[in-house]
């Protein structure tokens, strides 16, 4: 179900993980577009929606889809820059903590009498600074992104909880809280989906249609080879971590307005949902491969599955087990397909060698 060809050399080039793969442009256009991991996720999403609509009471109602989109919007937003980060072979675990810190920033400044619009801007600046700190420690100091973002996960969450403690700020202008929950007439489609669509288009163009995006894929395949070909590896990663920080801050602002509450523990654990959706959407954890349409389908698949199971009175523990099993199956299937492809290629190479020797 993949259109990539895994490297078959005994040892991968320096700076490249063995599991990373190149896209196979020798296959037909139809195969490259439709016979892919991303299209498999989209097909599975369509099947789940159809089955749930038929078998689960009230699932096919506009209000269900409205709340589904409202619930998944923060994950959809953060998944955009997270996709680019993981394609480079890095990861950012601090995104949910940055959401919490952004929420607390808005709440604290609003409580202090600042105009809420100014509080929004300050929260976005905090996101940029937080992302820049991650980027600096990873690209300049040279620390692993996993270790750095585990540290900043605790740091940003600690700052958020420290600023507000166990209290919550709930006094926000009704105009803004109404916007966060507003819908387009009777369609049930939330207004907040508009900024997501704009950002999705921007990130899709950036990743798939620019030299910057090609550099992202090149870094994921081999950072040393990318550097030799003229890609500014450190600068690219630094920019991506800043984008992750500012989009997480924006998601935190939306989260605050949607629930009308700024708390230090807002969005706790959301980073796991983001990463699970990105990987389920076909992005390789080793880097070098992924597409935004698959990631968006992955987010919606997890959201639709959870919504349908809750309406069917399935417990949250069982939902977590099913979601986790889906993610494990997704990662294992990718590794298995890569192994099967390598084995098939080796057999093909052996047969060609045997035929050549016989002909000689």
From TrEMBL:
Q: What is its main location?
A: membrane
* Entry GO terms, CC: plasma membrane
Where does the record place it?
Answer: Cell membrane
Q: Which residues cross the membrane?
A: 39-56, 68-87, 119-142, 154-172, 184-206, 238-257, 269-287, 294-312, 318-340
Its record classes its membrane topology as: Multi-pass membrane protein
Entry's InterPro entries?
ABC_transp_permease (IPR001851)
| Xref: Pfam families | BPD_transp_2
**Protein keywords:** Cell inner membrane, Cell membrane, Membrane, Transmembrane, Transmembrane helix, Transport
Recorded GO molecular functions are: transmembrane transporter activity
Q: Which domain of life is it from?
A: Bacteria
Name of this chain's protein: Autoinducer 2 import system permease protein LsrD
Q: Which organism does this sequence originate in?
A: Subtercola vilae
């Amino acid at each position: 179900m993949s259109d990539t060809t895994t490297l078959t050399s005994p040892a991968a080039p320096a700076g490249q993980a063995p599991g990373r793969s190149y896209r196979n442009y020798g296959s037909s256009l139809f195969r490259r577009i439709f016979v892919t991991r991303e299209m498999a996720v989209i097909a599975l999403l369509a099947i789940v929606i159809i089955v749930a609509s038929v078998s689960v009471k009230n699932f096919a109602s506009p209000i269900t889809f409205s709340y589904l989109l409202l619930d998944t919007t923060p994950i959809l937003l953060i998944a955009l820059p997270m996709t680019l980060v993981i394609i480079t072979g890095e990861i950012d675990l601090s995104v949910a903590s940055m959401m919490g810190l952004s929420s607390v920033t808005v709440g604290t400044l609003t409580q202090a009498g600042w105009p809420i619009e100014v509080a929004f801007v300050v929260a976005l600046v905090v996101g940029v600074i937080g992302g820049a700190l991650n980027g600096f420690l990873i690209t300049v100091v040279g620390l692993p992104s996993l270790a750095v973002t585990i540290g900043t996960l605790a740091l940003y969450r600690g700052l958020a909880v420290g600023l507000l403690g166990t209290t919550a700020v709930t006094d926000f202008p009704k105009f803004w809280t109404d916007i966060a929950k507003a819908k387009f007439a009777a369609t049930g489609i939330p207004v907040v989906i508009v900024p997501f669509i704009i950002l999705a288009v921007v990130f899709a163009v950036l990743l798939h249609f620019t030299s910057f995006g090609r550099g992202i894929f090149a870094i994921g395949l081999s950072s040393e080879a990318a550097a030799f070909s003229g890609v500014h590896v450190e600068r690219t990663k630094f920019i991506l971590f800043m984008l992750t920080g500012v989009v997480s801050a924006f998601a935190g602002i939306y989260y605050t307005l949607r629930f009308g509450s700024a708390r230090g523990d807002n969005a706790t654990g959301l980073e796991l949902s983001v990463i699970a959706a990105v990987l389920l959407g076909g992005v390789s954890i080793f880097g070098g491969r992924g597409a935004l349409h698959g990631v968006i389908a992955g987010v919606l698949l997890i959201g639709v599955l959870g919504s349908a199971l809750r309406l069917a009175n399935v417990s949250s523990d069982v939902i977590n087990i099913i979601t986790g099993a889906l993610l494990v199956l997704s990662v294992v299937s990718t590794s298995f397909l890569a192994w099967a492809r390598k084995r098939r290629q080796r057999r093909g190479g052996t047969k060609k060698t045997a035929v050549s020797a016989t002909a000689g």
